[in-house]
Design goal:
368 residues; Rossmann fold; 4-stranded antiparallel sheet; alpha/beta; Immunoglobulin-like; 24% strand; 8-stranded mixed sheet
Length: 368
């Protein structure tokens, strides 16, 4: 009798569970593969959005003129939208992406995206790109670091790369401060930027000197970021890492919005950095007040800047880079004031494809 009651009880529990949690009708999303890397290095993107009116792609492959034609999504009969995107580099690369569904940005629900960053697709079939993790290369460490900011009166986060063997070494190292762009945070350079892999590979190849690379969170007001860097972040790094504390052993680089922060920090504190690299950036041509502020300042301090900076080099992602005209105007202001600087450009637009190449290019120039 007890066995009968037990079976009846189990049956009741099962019926209640089914009543409370009815079985969901399967959809094409259950088995959907949202990203497929094709043999020709193009990428097919898919998202299940049966009620959507429009779907477009955001991120590095969203389209930049003739360099990266904008992919066009077509809705299939089963509610899956599909589009093929071409990549900048036929040899592969790492690209961030997201979907825009009826005008709303949507992270790929099928990808291992985080709250910190858009999902990433890696196209590296041979595994031999300069940004790739290679088995025969000693790997440094990328640490998540928290420090107290008196500027913001809170605890802020950054990421720090240290070269392989740093923990057991006693050699003082120089420091590169490397800033992300707008819409990203300090997780961007070590993730989609592949900074750790790029630096590991360069160091293993003997193409750069050992250094510490600090990747701050620049998603704040530019002026406050400058104060935080000079008054809080740099003192923290120099008190917690075995690094040099003089100008000649400090470098600064940043992309897009981070490039504006790089300009701001480096020009106001030109005696604190010997190497500066603004990437895909420049003061907006419509911001007349900025030029009215900076042009006389540049002229006043040009001689001292030229003595202090060993390298001041702008990088740009070709004419299709959305910051191209801003960079031209900014460089003209530098030239007019007599501030020496260099310039380099490559096709690719305002994308991580370009910025990874930039890091790979300027890291070997530092501290020599």
């Amino acid at each position: 009798m007890k066995k009968v009651f037990a079976l009846m009880a189990m049956a009741c529990v099962s019926m209640m569970a089914n009543a409370q949690f009815p079985q969901r009708t399967p959809t094409p999303n259950d088995t959907l593969k949202s990203v497929t890397v094709n043999a020709d290095k193009s990428v097919t993107f898919r998202i299940y959005a049966p009620g959507a009116k429009t779907v477009t792609l955001g991120g590095d492959l969203a389209g930049y003129g003739d360099i990266i034609p904008a992919p066009k999504f077509v809705k299939q009969a089963n509610g899956v939208w599909e589009a093929k995107a071409n990549t900048v580099n036929p040899n592969g690369g790492t690209y961030r992406y997201n979907f825009v569904v009826d005008g709303v940005r949507v992270n790929d629900p099928k990808a291992a995206a985080t709250a910190d960053l858009t999902a990433v697709v890696n196209i590296d079939p041979e595994g031999d790109g300069f940004w790739s993790m290679k088995e025969n290369v000693p790997h440094g460490a990328v640490a998540t670091v928290y420090y107290k900011s008196s500027t913001f009166n809170n605890t802020r986060r950054c990421h720090v790369w240290t070269p392989a063997g740093y923990e057991k070494g006693n050699q003082k190292l120089p420091v590169l401060y490397l800033i992300h762009g707008g819409g990203d945070n300090d997780y961007a350079w070590p993730n989609v930027g592949s900074a750790g892999n790029i630096l590991d590979n360069l160091l293993a190849e003997g193409k750069m000197v050992p250094m510490v690379v600090v990747m701050p969170n620049g998603s704040v007001n530019t002026d406050l970021f400058t104060d935080d860097m000079m008054n809080d972040l740099i003192p923290y790094v120099e008190s917690h890492y075995n690094v040099y504390t003089d100008k000649d052993h400090r470098a600064l680089a940043g992309l897009s919005m981070g490039g504006l922060e790089t300009l701001n920090v480096s020009l106001l504190h030109y005696n604190s950095f010997a190497y500066v690299f603004p990437l895909s950036t420049g003061w907006f041509t419509t911001s007349k007040d900025l030029y009215a502020k900076w042009e006389p300042y540049l002229k006043e301090h040009a001689a001292d800047m030229n003595k202090s900076f060993k390298i001041y080099k702008f990088y740009m992602g070709g004419e299709e880079d959305i910051a191209y005209q801003n960079c031209i105007a900014t460089r003209e202001a530098f030239t007019k004031a007599g501030v020496k600087h260099e310039y380099s450009s490559m096709p690719g637009g305002h994308t991580w494809h370009v910025w990874r190449h930039n890091l790979h290019d300027f890291a070997p120039l530092l501290f020599k």
